[in-house]
Amino acid sequence: MGKDQSEMSKFVRSTTSKYKFGAHISGAGGISNSVTNAYTVGCNAFAMFLKSPRKWVSPPYSKEEIEKFKENCNKYNYDPLTDILPHGQYFINLANPDEEKARKAYDSFIDDLSRCEQLGVGHYNLHPGSSLKGDHESQLKQLASYLNKAIKETKFVKVLLENMAGTGNLIGSNFKDLKYVIDLIEDKDRIGVCVDTCHTFAAGYDISTREAYDKFWNQFDEIIGYQYLRGIHLNDSKAPLGANRDLHEILGEGFLGLEVFRLISHDEHLQGLPIILETPQLKEEGYGEEVNLLEWLETVSAPDDEKLAEKNRELQEKGSKSRKDQLAKFDSKKQKGTKRSKPDSTNDIATHLSKQKKASKTE
C-alpha cells in the first residue's frame, strides 16, 4: 500500500508517509553503498559516517565514488540536501581547552564538512563536545569560534548540534548551552539542532506522555526556537529518566515505551526532517522493521488503541530484564549517595564506539 516495490529488498519505501523515517546505515565498501543500503531497508532518510569513526585520518573519496554516490541518490530518489544527515566522528571536540587537541579535532571536522559538500549533502550532525577541565563558558565561545571558522571555509552545509545525555562538563545536555553557542554563530542559516530522544530522556526531560512531550517542545521553542530544529535521532532509553547515561535501546523496549514514538509520528513540526534511528540493531534489517513500526504508528490516532497497547506490552516484555538491571544500578547509586562522574568526551566516545561496532559496519 503506497509503497515503491524494490526487486532487491523485502522492505519497501513508503510513498505515502508524511515523515522521513530512516536509520544510521553502513557505508562499508564505499560511501555510495550507504545509499543502496538505505533503500534496501526502506528508509526515506538516512545517516552514515563519512569516514571511519575510529581513525583521525581516512583516504579521500575518489571522483568515481563521488559520482556513484550522486548517481545512487538520483536513482533511488534521495535529495542529499534534505534527506541525508551524516554523523560526525565521536572524538571531535572543538571545545577542548587543549589547543593542540582542539586544532586536531578541527582538522577532522573541516574534512567532514568538505566531504559533505563533495557529495552535495546539506546537513551534518555534530556532538558539541566537552569543556573538560576548562571554564565552561570560555569553551562554549571556543566551540562557536571554530564553527564560525568552518562555516566561512565551506559553502553550504548546515551544522546540527546534537543535544546530549550527560551533565557537568558535557555540552548540550542543557538547552541553554546550545542557545549560547547558536547566539554566537554569525551565519544563522548554517546552524541547527538535532534532538535525540534517548539523550533527551537521560538528561532529565520527560517526553513519555502527551503532557510531558508538549512541555518539552515548548521549552525547546522558548529557549532555542523551532526554526533551528533540523533533525531527529530516534532511540528508546535503556536507562531511566535523568540517569545521564547514553544507552540507546530498541523502540518500545526501553523506559520511554511506544507512546512518544506515536506522538512523533503525528507531530507536524517534524514533517520534512530526517528522522534517524540509532537503535542497537545487530543487522540493518532490524531498521527496516522499525521503519515499518513508525509508519504503522503514523496510522494510530488514539493513545488507548488496543493494537498499540498490545504491541507496547510485547516490546516492553522483551526489554524488561534490561530495564530492571539498569534501574537497579540507578537506584544503587542514589542509595549510596555516590556522586555521578562527570561525563567527558572520552567517556562518550568509548560508549558510542562500543555500541557502533555492534550496530553498524564502517569503512
Structure overview:
- The protein is of the alpha/beta class and 363 residues long.
- The protein has one domain (17-359): TIM Barrel.
- Helices cover 42% and strands 11% of the residues.
- It contains 12 helices and 11 strands.
- The protein has helices spanning 33-40, 63-75, 99-119, 136-153, 175-184, 197-202, 210-223, 259-264, 285-297, 306-318, 320-336, 345-359, and strands spanning 3-4, 13-14, 20-24, 45-47, 123-126, 158-162, 191-196, 229-234, 236-237, 248-249, 274-277.
- The strands form 3 sheets. The protein has a 7-stranded parallel β-sheet. Strands 1-2 form a two-stranded antiparallel sheet. It has a two-stranded antiparallel ribbon with strand order 9-10.
- Strand 6, helix 5 and strand 7 form a beta-alpha-beta unit.
- Helix 4 packs across helix 5 (175-184).
- The longest helix has 21 residues, at 99-119.
- Mean pLDDT is 91; it is low at 1-8 and 340-363.
Arithmetic mean of pLDDT: 91
Radius of gyration over all CA atoms, rounded:
20 Å
Question: Helix tally?
Answer: 12
Order of helices and strands: EEEHEHHEHEHEHHEEEHEHHHH
CATH class: Alpha Beta
CATH architecture: Alpha-Beta Barrel
Number of separate structural domains:
1
- Distance between the ends: 35 Å
Q: Tell me the number of strands.
A: 11
**Amount of beta strand:** 5-15%
GO biological process, one term: base-excision repair
Keywords: DNA damage, DNA repair, Hydrolase, Lyase, Metal-binding, Zinc
Biased composition (Basic and acidic residues): 305-334
Domain Xylose isomerase-like TIM barrel: 37-294
